[in-house]
Design brief:
mainly alpha, about 55% helix
C-alpha cells in the first residue's frame, strides 16, 4: 500500500472516530426544551393594524390617482 492510501485511511479513521459512539444498546433521547410562555404586549397587534392602514392608504392613493 502506498503512502497516499495509508494517509487516506488514517484520515478516514480520524474523521469517523468522533462520530461513532459505542453504547450498551439503550437509546436515550434528550428531553425537548420547554417552550417559553406566550406573552402578548400588543406590539404585534399594533404592527398588524399599521400594515392594514398602510395598504388602505396605498389603495386609496392608487384609486384617486
Amino acid at each position: 500500500m502506498n503512502c497516499i492510501g495509508v494517509c487516506a485511511l488514517f484520515f478516514l479513521a480520524i474523521l469517523t472516530s468522533g462520530s461513532i459512539q459505542v453504547t450498551d444498546g439503550q437509546y436515550t433521547a434528550q428531553a425537548p426544551a420547554a417552550a417559553p410562555p406566550m406573552s402578548n404586549d400588543g406590539t404585534a397587534i399594533d404592527q398588524g393594524l399599521a400594515y392594514l392602514l398602510m395598504i388602505a392608504a396605498l389603495l386609496i392613493t392608487y384609486l384617486v390617482h
